[in-house]
Amino acid sequence: MINQPNDSSSSSVLGRFLTGINESVFLTKLGIANIELVNYLNGLLIQFIRADAILIPNGKTDHTARKIIEMLDVAETSRAPKRRDIYQAIGDYTLFWVGVYPESLNKRQTRQTTNWIHNFTRQGKKCYALASEMKPSALQPSEQVLHCLSQQYELCAFGLRESRREWEQYCSQPSQLIF
């Protein structure tokens, strides 16, 4: 589950840097004025950008797919609050990879395998939609945010790609250090 914007990680230098870039991309360049959605995407970036929180799709055809399938199996046998968390986690995981590092999914693709970006997108949209149909607890994002993530998945992925492009451009300048 995504850390809330009030989490201490959002007050770190890296958290503030990513949040500033992400807000600039979504609010200014893309014109998305849904603050709850943008805050959610800020939390997603902050959570997953930490190296220890990322499970890198490393070319093993079944590793990432198996992880998602296992999570779906657990969701089906879980009660509603946990099921919602699992669906949301799958949506978050797929959105992060499709949005921030799509080239790592493209590397996995061969003539014999399926289109990983398409599959991740389809699964992410479906899981966000399923999670949005369940009543949230006080600590979970609203149904509206998850519904919006499902409906606007491709736009959110594009925005995350633009955020990555911005931070790479910023960090490629020798005089620009963020910490």
Topology record:
Layout: H1 13-29, H2 35-49, H3 63-76, H4 80-100, H5 102-108, H6 116-132, H7 143-151, H8 153-171
Q: What does this protein structure show overall?
A:
This protein is mostly helical and 179 residues long. It has one domain. The protein has helices at 13-29, 35-49, 63-76, 80-100, 102-108, 116-132, 143-151, 153-171. The longest helix has 21 residues, at 80-100.
Number of helical stretches of at least 4 residues: 8
**What's the helical proportion of residues?**
55-70%
How many domains? The number is 1
Look at the helices and sheets and give the structural class.
mainly alpha
Tell me the number of strands: 0
Give the key terms.
single chain, 179 residues, mainly alpha, 66% helix, globular
Quick structural gist:
The protein is built from eight helices and no strands. It has helices at 13-29, 35-49, 63-76, 80-100, 102-108, 116-132, 143-151, 153-171. It is globular, with a radius of gyration of 16 Å.
